[in-house]
Amino acid sequence: MSRAFIISWYNKIPPAERTLPIIMYNGKVYTPEEVYREVMAGTRLGEALQAKIERLRASHSFVLDDLKELDYIARKRVEQVIKNLPPDFSLVAIGVNGKRIYRPEELLKTRFFEKAVEKEKKKVVELLRG
Amino acid sequence: MKILFLESEHGRYSELKYASCVARMYADRLRKKGHQVYEISRPSPDEANAKIREINPDVIWFVGHGDPDRATLENVQLWVKSTDDLWQFRGRIVVAHSCLTGIELGKVAVVKGAVAYFGYKDEMWFVWCDESKYPNCACSKENPYAVRPEVWIKLVTYPHYPPLEFLMAIAEGRDFKEAFDHSLAVTDKLVAELQSIRPASQQEASMIKVTEWALEGNRDDQVLYKRTAEMGVETQQVGSLSKALAMTLILSLPTVGLMFIGGGGNAGKNVPNI
């Protein structure tokens, strides 16, 4: 395994995506920044993260456990983004009935959240594959 | 073409003006292209109906709160109370900047004589400021979140572009399918533009991301019903497979899969084979 691979992979990731979870290992999620740091430091964790990223970059590489992790990672990404919104930020949906102005914490219980999770699953795969 | 814009501003708050102020920009562009454009600001249902009778427009654009079978205008006053009588839309192209009317109202409108109906089959999302505290956010660079002005104007206006781009494409002479595909392509372009922004802060990054999700979610829910030569109804939409089916397909496809073509449409979406 070469560090050059991770450097090249990391450089292709848009800056805004580098602090969002992208990979899971031993029950913990890691961001591209954390992966980069561990690999550059030459740690065992860095080696393991790089090996997993290299495996998942191949076509048809996601087994069932990877898909479950992908769902978890996507949820964590969406939760982190929503958590970082200003508290008085709002999204609006213009239906006749019901609540239609959503504060960040309320978004977590909406279909908007679930749709965002689906988008982020796709995004994670794209980012892993560079 | 005679194009009527019903520009509501106040719903429960002043959330509707976020779409109307973008519509006004498009109205000016359409006028410059030689179309007869009429705008009613903050229309009551009676005012809207009177104007429709008076000018007999080819196209109606409206913004208002919606349900599968109802639509409202200023102050959430019911304009279309049910699908029993949809005379307002007969013989016209309708662009509904409204939640949920793409489920039923649009389809019935075309069955009852509308030429075409562009709408949303789920909630249509966009960014908003609490107008009681921040009255100048819509179509403005001003915002209370310390987002850079040139970024904020994109966040607050982009979710309203796609239906208006559909309208613009129709006014330029494109057919319905081309216009629908154009609105999808514009959405993808807007998302790509947002993704290319280097955020100045964590908050700004999150607000950009949420706006991307709004645009992408709205794109997946936009739908077009149009009248066919056989007097039937044809649907154009970005289809979506069930998660289980999609996962089965993704796992079993030997190459990158062309995921779906919704209704009579051709909006193919590449999905990585994971």
Question: How is the topology of this model organized?
Answer:
The complex is a heterodimer of chains A (130) and B (274).
Chain A: H1 3-12, E1 23-25, E2 28-30, H2 32-41, H3 44-56, H4 64-83, E3 90-93, E4 101-102, H5 104-107, H6 111-129
Antiparallel strand pairs in A: 1-2, 3-4
Helix pairs in contact in A: 1-2, 2-3, 4-6
Chain B: E1 2-7, H1 17-32, E2 36-41, H2 45-55, E3 59-63, E4 66-67, E5 70-72, E6 78-80, E7 93-97, H3 105-111, E8 116-120, E9 125-128, H4 149-157, H5 161-171, H6 176-195, H7 202-221, E10 222-227, E11 233-237, H8 243-252, E12 257-258, E13 270-271
Parallel strand pairs in B: 1-2, 1-3, 3-7, 7-8
Antiparallel strand pairs in B: 4-5, 5-6, 8-10, 10-11, 12-13
Helix pairs in contact in B: 1-5, 5-6, 6-7
Structure write-up:
The complex is a heterodimer of chains A (130) and B (274). By secondary structure, chain A is mainly alpha-helical. Chain A has one domain. Chain A is built from six helices and four strands, in the order αββαααββαα. Chain A has helices at residues 3-12, 32-41, 44-56, 64-83, 104-107, 111-129, and strands spanning 23-25, 28-30, 90-93, 101-102. In chain A, the strands form two sheets. Chain A has a two-stranded antiparallel sheet. In chain A, strands 3-4 form a two-stranded antiparallel ribbon. In chain B, the strands form three sheets. In chain B, strands 2-1-3-7-8-10-11 form a seven-stranded mixed β-sheet, with helices on both faces. A three-stranded antiparallel β-sheet of chain B has the order 4-5-6. A two-stranded antiparallel ribbon of chain B has the order 12-13. In chain B, helix 1 runs parallel beside helix 5 (161-171), helix 5 (161-171) packs antiparallel against helix 6 (176-195) and helix 6 packs antiparallel against helix 7 (202-221). Chain B folds into two domains: 2-238, Rossmann fold; 240-274, no CATH class. Chain B has helices spanning 17-32, 45-55, 105-111, 149-157, 161-171, 176-195, 202-221, 243-252, and strands spanning 2-7, 36-41, 59-63, 66-67, 70-72, 78-80, 93-97, 116-120, 125-128, 222-227, 233-237, 257-258, 270-271. Chain B has eight helices and 13 strands. Mean pLDDT of chain B is 85; it is low at 240-272.
